[in-house]
Amino acid sequence: MRIIAAFSKLEPVKFVSHLDMQRLFQRAFRRAELPLSYSKGFNPHPLLSFATALSVGYTSESEYFDVMLDEYLSPEEFTRRVNAALPEGVRITSALDAGDFKGSLTPLMRSADYDAVLSFDAPVERERLEAAVSSLLDGELIVDKKTKGGIKSVDIRPMLLEASVADYSENHARLEIRGVLSAEGGLPPELLFGVLEERLGASFSRRVHRKKIEMDWSDLKL
Amino acid sequence: MNFSASTTAEERLERINALISRVEKPTRYMGGELNMRVKQGEGLFRFALCFPDTYEIGMSHLGSRIIYNVLNNREDTYAERCYAPWVDMEALLRESGEKLFSLETKRPLDEFHVIAFSLLYEMCYTNILTMLELSGIPLRSCERGEDAPLIVAGGPCVCNSEPIAEIVDVFFFGDGEELVNEFMDAYAEGRRRGAKKRELLLDLCAIPGVYVPAFYRAEYENGQFARLIKTEEAAPDCIERRIVRDLDRAEFTGDLIVPYMSIVHDRIALELFRGCTRGCRFCQAGFIYRPIRERRMSTLIEYADEQLKRTGHDEVSLFSLSSGDYSEIHEMVPAVLDRYTKNRISVSFPSLRIDSFLKDDLEKMQGVRKTGLTFAPEAGTQRMRDIINKGVNEDDLLRTVKDAFEAGWQGVKLYFMIGLPGETDEDVLGIAELARKVSREFYSMPKDKRGKGLRCTVSASTFVPKPFTPFQWEPQIDVDEVLRRQALLRQALKGIRGVEFNCHFSETSRLEACFARGDRRLAEVMIGAYRRGARFDSWDEHFKKEAWDESFAERGLSVDMFANRRISTDEPLAWQHMDALVTLDYLKKEHERAFEGIVTPDCREKCNGCFGQKCATHCGMHSARAEGSL
Question: What's the mean pLDDT when you consider all of chain B?
């Protein structure tokens, strides 16, 4: 059977890389003694795949993976057993039986909502910040993006869907950002923050939290 | 920025987390892994278990994991971990003024009572200096006052710890399982009494296996080490190596911490036995872990079951210095393979000599995950193997690789050493001859019976003379000679089908030889090199030759005078106050036999008397033989 699960990745594990998260889950599954299905071939590995990766240092309450099991396990039982085996900071928040859905989760992704708490190195007035944030939505957003073929200039404006200042105090602000997230790519939040720092003329450290990944579940007959 | 001296713990934690977020591999410093020990409460002794290399190397060291468990099983002590910060973290710590911190509580190291270092190889010494300095702790023992943490160290390098004798307050010589508890008991008692550092050290030096170097002074004559003079009446003349007699019942690792990042040995490691009876004359481990002591098969399987459940690892490694010598090996290999491989857990037996009994198990071993086979003939000719007492002959080796090839293996690694005492060009060329025979063995098999293509890697490292081996008096060959013999071998290996040559001689092999046989004068050389930027000396990309050259020159010393000098067998040795149990007379006898080409049999066949007077009391092989269990 196939299980689709949503999980959170919080503060204690925010520096664990995507590759290390895969190993973390595999080990938790073995501690939970799940009847995992393995790939055939030279180097059998559990059939576990993630919808997408999360940047190192970000937290999230809305990540997804799917995993194949040799025997039926109710999603509740799955959640209970895996959560008992997971380290602090990672939790399965919901799980479902994927039925006969065969595809990958990645193409189902549409967009992602981020909460970013900025801490300014020097105070920034609210008006200046709001003006800079709303300017992100006007015109092009040309950034230098590292690709396999070297550094390329690209416009990330089409990837940015919404951006606003949700909370503000002299040294801190919370932004709400919605960006495209799909199989073809998505909004790179760090590059967006780079542009914002440039337009503000001020630098800031940030804590970024992914609140939600919008998925199109319509292909799944649930 | 660290403007105010009085900051709260949370603010500090916040600042540390900010630093962690800026390094290349944050999981090296993060802590919080599954099975990490958490302790709360006032009045705990704070013990920092430090490893002077990166997290991924330190976390792979079984000994540290055992000590972590032993200490944390005490109610009065909280042992936390700390690893050498990589250069990026070091720079951030220096720039921010934050002190080096433990993984468990992120407490600055200078707030610990005891700071312990594991000394696994000589080339990690400069990292000890980095770790002390980044903690705001003076480097030299004599510069540290009553408030400073006690700096202790254990591990194989304690055999000759003279090069860092002026840095470390207390050394632990030998097995640590029981010794650290005795140390902590005495330490706790001293603290309760309000003992001063000197008093405390006097208490500690009464514990067998504890070496307090400040109670001895070194003298030199004609530029050579002459003697060590006791400056404190109560200090022992000789420090006897500690051995855990019943390894089967000794404390082990407890629940293994499960790292987030991938570490070097990312698996459950179980020690089949400690010690080795083979007596290869170059091998320090073969002498300093004697006598051989086994864990029972049932104990090991119990550990494996438990750890698999607690960690979720998918690999178990059953290791020792020579696993083929384990008394239950023929029952053990098939039993663990049957037990675990069906659950997709791979089992490995590094350093296992495959014999005919185990031939059938070869296929199962590669069933789960394919790893290469490794053989260490060490030398290319029988003459040379007799000199070093490596009891392997060509027929055994060729038969074993043939079995492996028939079982479908096609990757073989062959380990050799060049520069061994008495080596001639013929011995060097013999390595290529042996590789040629291995290659022929593979390609003479019918195509349908073997793998597609042979991948035989020939590795040649450079001999390093080590204390407490019969070769401790022998020189290392000089750089030009190393390069010439490597070139000779490279040329001879050319054109052998499926064979690849892998050798690297770096300056670090020379420095390793120098520090292995060095004396107390090297401490200042090391500090000088550290000030000039020497760090992570065992990492080629970090090794700074000029820093070392300048520092040696400054002190009027050289690497050569320690590494390339033949020491006469009646000269005083800088490590002669350490009693490793194997006697000096025995080592001299073995040294002579080497050059006569006489092999010394495995001591399970016949006691060779290596502990001298102490054979009866310290070896236990006598009683085991009497009971018929050997």
Answer: 92
Helix (H, G, I), strand (E, B) or coil at B25: coil
Query: What b/e readout covers B456-473, taking b as 16+ CB neighbours within 10 angstroms?
Result: bbbbbbbbbbbbbbbbbb
Of A20, A30, A38, the CB nearest to B260: A20
Distance of CA A189 to the CA centre of its chain: 11
* pLDDT of amino acid A147: 79
**Contact between residue B499 and residue B401 where contact means Cβ atoms under 8 Å apart:** no
Q: Round to whole Å and give the CA distance between B243 and B282.
A: 22
> How many A×B Cβ pairs under 8 Å?
54
According to CATH, the superfamily of the domain at A108-217 is Pseudouridine synthase (3.30.2350.10)
Tell me if B312 and A43 make a contact (CB, 8 A cut-off).
Answer: no
Strand extents, DSSP E, B349-487: 373-378, 411-418, 455-462
Please give the ipTM for the structure prediction. Answer: 0.89
Number of Cβ atoms within 10 Å of the Cβ of B542: 14
From chain B residues 248-287, the ones with a CB under 8 A of any chain A CB are 258, 260-262
In a domain, B34, yes or no: yes
Q: For residue A187, is pLDDT > 70? A: yes
Residue of chain B minimizing CA distance to A24: B260
List pLDDT tens digits, range B447-468. Answer: 888 888 899 999 999 999 999 9
Q: Cα–Cα distance between B399 and B35 in angstroms, integer?
A: 44
CATH 3.30.70.580 in chain A, residue ranges? 2-104
User: For residue B29, is it within any domain?
Assistant: yes
Q: Which residues of B touch A27 (CB under 8 A)?
A: 258, 311-314
How far apart are the CA of A221 and the nearest CA of chain B, in angstroms?
A: 34
**CB–CB contact B311 A16 (8 Å):** no
Q: What is the helix (H) or strand (E) element at residue B130, kind and residue range?
A: helix B125-133
Closest partner residue to B32 (CB to CB) among A12, A38, A44 is A12
For A184, the token pair is: 């073809």
Residue position matching structure tokens 């099983």: B73
Out of B21, B260, B312, whose CB is closest to A30? Answer: B312
